């Protein structure tokens, strides 16, 4: 049981992206079903997890805690796993791993998530909860037409009781009116509103000087408010990612705004009309587990045969559909049609990218990433780098991304392969991107990048290279990748040619490709990587090699 010590909504934040839980709960089920979820099992789970290609990180300091952080949060809270008396997947968990419609599986579970619950008990300092958070978030977006990330952070997370709904609407509308008339810069206006709201939310603690946080010995009011604001930011970020996983919500990365997908308005209206807003009472935790674990509840509009037929006829009017098909067969047909339409949209995008019609947009998106203007910078960096690599030269370029039904980037996919894989026929290039910087970049990226390259190298049995792109490159990463040019590691498929480049240099490579009087060919790409091998053999330290290969990147078409 978890205790909530908060006067705002508590939202599951681990994993950060919901799709990431699929391989981990599959691993838990495969190796530990029937065992007790104790410290020994938790450490054993992390031992197994560290050997998997999709795992990024170490989990070495406290493996048992790392395991609980991955499993006890969203997988348990959303009813996908049962940990007592022994480990097993619930029917909802089994369905998540095997369904073609993970968006529907996530939606059902999120609509059942409630506070309070037998899993989450408020302490004496916490507020009184009476809410199904994701249900009310959908209602807010539908009622307001759109919801900014900042409005979600400042106001929507105060919706601890659904009876406060109208007062939250009033606060958001007043925020918008004040924003329209203020002379303050937006960031200063937003921070002022956030501080004011937090001061009201925690007025009782502030008045008695109860401002110590778990993370620090600093008891100042400034530190206390900063910590609470940071918590709200994390909860808001998780809310956006989990809502997107339902397929019902669009995110405008530039405006950082949520809206209902136009084609799914009927689905949302059905949910808001049919699902009771009041949390249920449960006598035991097992009753709650049984309720959460039901893979078929609550009923959605997609469970209505007539609604599915209507959607098929509306979106695919030329499609002939048999009258005797079951609802599951109709769902499969709809899924197949949506996937084919998505594939066609992405194919059209690639055609526009290859003829450089998207050049200005690609470069502008990189600038927006550098200026921190986009909501999900890591996702947008990976997507935009895929577009840039597609435009840069020939080859078949595939991104390890999840796209929504309309070909827009939805989320970063499971981490069991390179972010981008470029097939040039005679050789391959893996591309890894990250927004991480400093020591964290080295700790989280260096080993997975090497491992992913080794996996690709072994699977293709062809010359394979790697491009590592980040806004800034950490010195430890430079040293690590330089060393791998010289060191033959069988686990990584021998010596590894990995070139780290700052985003500014990669942008210049894209610009040179655009300005060239000809279309660059794959051989020029391979020559660039082979030059890195030559330079690594010529220089006896990583700094000189990095300087030389960066200079070569700025003149890559002249090689």
Briefly say what this structure is:
With 559 residues, the protein is an alpha/beta fold. It has helices spanning 21-32, 39-49, 63-71, 74-77, 91-98, 102-112, 133-144, 149-154, 165-181, 186-201, 203-207, 221-244, 265-274, 285-293, 305-315, 327-354, 359-370, 377-392, 438-460, 475-486, 503-515, 522-538, 542-553, and strands spanning 2-4, 81-82, 88-89, 120-122, 147-148, 249-252, 257-260, 396-399, 401-403, 409-412, 420-423, 428-433, 464-470, 498-502.
Task: Report on the architecture of this protein.
This protein is α/β, with parallel strands linked by helices and 559 residues long. It has 3 domains: 2-293, FokI Restriction Endonuclease, Chain A, domain 1 (Alpha-Beta Complex); 305-341; 356-558, Restriction Endonuclease (3-Layer(aba) Sandwich), CATH 3.40.91.50. It contains 23 helices and 14 strands. The protein has helices at 21-32, 39-49, 63-71, 74-77, 91-98, 102-112, 133-144, 149-154, 165-181, 186-201, 203-207, 221-244, 265-274, 285-293, 305-315, 327-354, 359-370, 377-392, 438-460, 475-486, 503-515, 522-538, 542-553; strands at 2-4, 81-82, 88-89, 120-122, 147-148, 249-252, 257-260, 396-399, 401-403, 409-412, 420-423, 428-433, 464-470, 498-502. It has a 5-stranded mixed sheet with strand order 8-11-12-13-14, with helices on both faces. It has a 3-stranded antiparallel sheet with strand order 5-7-6. Strands 1-4 form a two-stranded parallel sheet. Strand 6 and strand 7 form a beta hairpin. It is globular. The relative contact order is 0.08. The model has no long low-confidence stretch (mean pLDDT 92).
